[in-house]
Amino acid sequence: MPLRPRSDAASPRKRSSEGMDLGTRSLVLGVGSLALSWVPLLNIIAFLAALMAVAFGLLARWPTGWLTNQEPDPRRGLVGVVLGGIAIVVFVITAVRYSAL
Fold first, then answer.
1. Model-level pTM?
2. Is the residue at 4 inside a domain?
3. Domain, as residue range, for 93
């Protein structure tokens, strides 16, 4: 008896080989920006990464999903937005502190 192919519903959802979804990108950028926001001169790069983390996180939480074909992870997007926001605040504090020296 020949084997029947499995239906799409029975097989696990395959992830795209393109990379991470927007929520995961937001989380990675948020963690990286928070880690680098304390270092002088590197905090400028961390500021840009924090802005990207906030943008990607908000796009991951957007309900339409018009940007990608992947299903974004909204929880990771929310964490990325929060970490990016904290990194922006740390950047402002450290920039003011280092400019006063």
1. 0.73
2. no
3. 22-99
